[in-house]
């Protein structure tokens, strides 16, 4: 599932590929991808004639910004965008096609069919589902340590599910939560309200660094993620803990363990990420 770095990579790529293009028509072959408006014909008619100005992002959602409309799109498990010439054959599992006036097309392909699209008037998208309740953007300037502490520190839940909750901080999924907790030397099952100030600072810094580095590297490609130009991300070799079950910890050599926390497969080092605070712990 794409997390913030992957979606950000798609955003940057798409922005370069479709900004300035005008929609001539839209073909929808799987109506349930379109969550708003209810009527597919209305979706099609509303988009006709609109020009794409930019592509934004909120959490794991893309915002395709047009003159007078915003399309909010979530890729979920396997959704992918690609820009093609209209003469190119349409691949299987292509569910939505935006036909541009210049003869190219933006195609949305989704094998698992879990992706969603919502169409809004500009600004309206932040006042309704699915963007309404989203939490802090970890790569924004507004994501200060104090803001992070305010949403996390008092909670009585385990830290891993808290970090996965998009109402607190957006963009982190299973991979980058494991990476950030490892980097901060914090056990995934530690309770939020048992983290001391030093641990909260380490975790805050680890989240920002982990996501920034992954964005810089073009997003991870653990599963079937491909960016808007069909290029695979290149960060997977840099993952330090995720997917390394039984391999030696890169810091201390202890075999990496995998367990289930909050229903999700979780990788951690039993030595670097002790459940008890260990003042002599090494920093990563
Ligand atoms: Zn270790």
Which descriptor suits the 3D outline?
elongated
Low-confidence stretches: 221-225
**CATH homologous superfamily assignment of the largest domain:** MutM-like, N-terminal
Number of structural units classed as domains: 2
- Provide the succession of SSEs: HEEHEEEEEEEHHHHEE
The first-to-last residue Cα distance is: 26 Å
Question: What is the name of the CATH topology of the largest domain?
Answer: N-terminal domain of MutM-like DNA repair proteins
Helix content: 10-25%
Provide a descriptive summary of the structure in words.
About 2% of the residues have low confidence. 24% of the residues lie in helices and 22% in strands. It folds into two domains: 124 residues, N-terminal domain of MutM-like DNA repair proteins (Alpha-Beta Barrel); 124 residues, Helicase, Ruva Protein, domain 3, CATH 1.10.8.50. Helix 5 packs across helix 6. With 284 residues, the protein is α+β, with helices and mostly antiparallel strands. The chain is built from six helices and eleven strands. The radius of gyration is 20 Å and the shape is elongated. The strands form three sheets. The chain has a five-stranded mixed β-sheet with strand order 2-9-5-4-3, covered by helices on one side. The two termini are 26 Å apart. The site of zinc ion has 7 residues, from loops. Monomer. Belongs to the FPG family.
